[in-house]
Design brief:
This protein is an alpha+beta fold and 586 residues long. The protein contains 15 helices and 17 strands. It starts with a helix and ends in a 6-residue tail after the last strand.
């Protein structure tokens, strides 16, 4: 657990304060004790001079006088000979006392003329302060010693009272210093605490709360610097956030699929198009791409891009319920130090492009074939007629064939131009309210003779109360007529055709039911392509161009509608053309 800066400061301050106060108390206590004992020593020294003078002037009566003085000044007086023998003591019989030459104070007096010691008296069994003064004699040797002793009991009692006062005052001063110091330190560290809280908010991402410091010193400058940093960070992160949002929106809605992985192959971003192409689950982000994608070509391409440290582009085939062709572009992601940080894959679905390329190729081949066949026939008969030698009847027959092939060629070119105009939306729609029942009746009348020649019956099932639809009547009639024409050409002899109108939701339906040969299920998705024929020989024999259903589909789309097909091989087909009853494509 980390200690706070304030706690560290107050601990250091408290230790320093207590240590200083203890030192001060010890200094004053020692100073007072030393001063007190020094004064006591001075008093004893002065008294020793008086005792020595009295003993010198009244050598015969010194004993009684010294005892009286000792009792009056409450001081023990001892006279010692140069040899250390006790000559007089105010509190003990001198003859019973030991030699005092080895006493500390006597030894000090012998060496320097005076000596002091504080020790317990063996005679009185209490602590005494001893002062001894050597009396000068002949040859510089002591002529004797005067020793005074004073009990330290009262002195020590007085010192203890002073000690108590000193230490009590020290304790009070320490507490006051600690309290005042804590208050001041709190005022000093409060701005630092607020700065620390602000830094924590910045670390957690809170860039909206301003940083304010109530201080007018260096800390306030630090706070102002942090506030400027917060403002700059908010602006920079805001700009990056906007850029990231735009980039994410761009990547999310771009037509190509985008997958980004980190250096551990974990998906960090994937857009909806990539999910669709790779069939990824909604929770793909945060999981390894190799666990989600079973297509080894894509994974190998990403590993190769990482290994070579350069972008790679390949065309891949993604297998699944529906085969998809994609153009994969893989680029490794490096930092400024060229350290690998992942890869970005852009997947462009080119399935429709492949299909359109195939349709275009087929269209060119079919147009070339469809144009070449009648032209070859016309050229052959023209050359035959030019060479001569034909009877009039053969000439008329050849000319009839030429005319038929020319008409077929004209129909083909007309259908191509019509289809081109409709696809390019250059055909102007003459929109007016149209009765679809009348369109159905007109188609039945127009193809009635052709149906009768094949023994086909055309039945009408027209709904009543249908709304008028906004449409180009001629184009709508052409589209529906192409469906009826298709039903006549590919029906069975003796079969039937039913033209039906109905209303479903917001659209009006025009259906063509036939009992014809039907269409294989594999060919149903392609029957609306240009020049696509299920039975090519049968279609050409009937004079079809292969564009009727494609034209019908584009006309329906131009009106905002469409065409659906339901067919069963050998039983017939149902073409449904629907047009919105209230809107039309622009």
């Amino acid at each position: 657990m980390k200690r706070s800066f304030f706690g560290k400061l107050i601990a250091v301050y408290a230790c320093g304060t207590v240590l200083c106060m203890v030192c001060v108390a010890l200094f004053w206590s020692k100073s007072y004790r030393d001063e007190h004992y020094a004064r006591l020593e001075q008093v004893l020294a002065a008294r020793a001079v008086l005792v020595a003078e009295l003993a010198r002037r009244e050598p015969g009566e010194a004993g009684s006088s010294l005892k009286a003085i000792a009792n009056r000044i409450d001081t023990r007086v001892t006279l010692i000979s140069p040899a250390g023998a006790v000559q007089f003591d105010s509190m003990e019989e001198a003859s019973r006392m030991d030699n005092h030459l080895d006493r500390p104070e006597v030894m000090a007096a012998t060496a320097s003329g005076r000596g002091t010691s504080i020790r317990r008296s063996g005679t009185l069994n209490e602590e005494m302060m001893y002062y001894c003064a050597a009396q000068p004699g002949e040859g510089g040797k002591p002529a004797g010693y005067v020793r005074l002793a004073f009990s330290t009991t009262s002195v020590r009692r007085s010192i203890r009272r002073v000690y108590l006062a000193i230490w009590s005052g020290t304790a009070v001063a320490t507490l006051a210093a600690l309290g005042g110091g804590a208050f001041l330190l709190r005022r000093i560290t409060r701005p630092l605490t607020r700065l620390q809280e602000s830094a924590e908010r910045l670390k957690s991402g809170d860039l909206e709360t301003p940083i304010r410091v109530d201080s007018r010193d260096e800390i306030s400058l630090l706070g102002e610097s942090l506030e400027r940093m917060r403002t700059n960070l908010r602006e920079v992160i805001g700009r990056y956030g906007e850029a990231a949002g735009r980039l994410e929106a761009l990547l999310a809605w771009m037509s190509g699929g985008v997958v980004a992985t980190d250096e551990h192959d974990v998906v960090v971003f994937v857009n909806d198009e990539a999910r669709r192409l790779l069939r990824l689950p909604p929770d793909a982000t945060g999981r390894r791409l190799s666990e989600l994608v079973r297509d080894r070509e894509l994974l190998d391409l990403m590993q190769e891009s990482h290994r070579l440290e350069q972008p790679r582009t390949e065309h891949l085939t993604l297998l699944g319920a529906e085969e998809r062709f994609v153009q994969a572009r893989i680029a490794p992601v490096h930092d400024a130090a060229r350290k690998f940080h992942g890869a970005v894959a852009v997947l462009v679905d080119v399935t429709e492009l492949r299909r359109l390329e195939r349709v275009r190729s087929d269209f060119v081949a079919n147009v070339s074939h469809e144009l070449k066949s009648p032209l070859t026939s016309i050229r052959g008969f023209v050359e035959t007629l030019r060479d001569g030698g034909c009877s009039p009847e053969e000439t008329r027959r050849f000319l009839a064939i030429v005319e038929q092939e020319a008409e077929r060629l004209e129909n083909l070119i007309t259908d191509l131009l019509s289809l081109s105009e409709i696809e390019a939306r250059r055909a102007a729609l003459s929109v007016a309210p149209v009765d679809v029942n009348e369109v159905a009746r007109s188609a039945a009348q127009r193809f009635g003779e052709a149906a009768a020649q094949q023994g086909l019956a055309i039945d009408l099932k027209l709904a009543t109360g249908l709304p008028l639809v906004p449409a180009d009547e001629n184009l709508l009639g052409q589209a529906f007529g192409n469906l009826v024409d298709n039903a006549v050409k590919y029906n069975r002899p003796g079969g039937s055709i039913t033209l039906e109108t109905a209303r479903e939701g917001g659209s009006v339906l025009m259906r063509v039911h036939d009992t014809g040969i039907g269409i294989p299920s594999k060919d149903v998705p392609r029957v609306f392509e240009r020049f696509y024929r299920v039975d090519k020989s049968h279609s050409r024999r009937l004079g079809g161009t292969g564009l009727g259903l494609s034209i019908a589909k584009h006309i329906a789309a131009a009106h905002g509608g469409g065409i659906t097909l339901e067919s069963e091989l050998g039983k017939g087909s149902v073409f449904s053309l629907f047009i919105p009853s209230s809107t039309i494509a622009s």
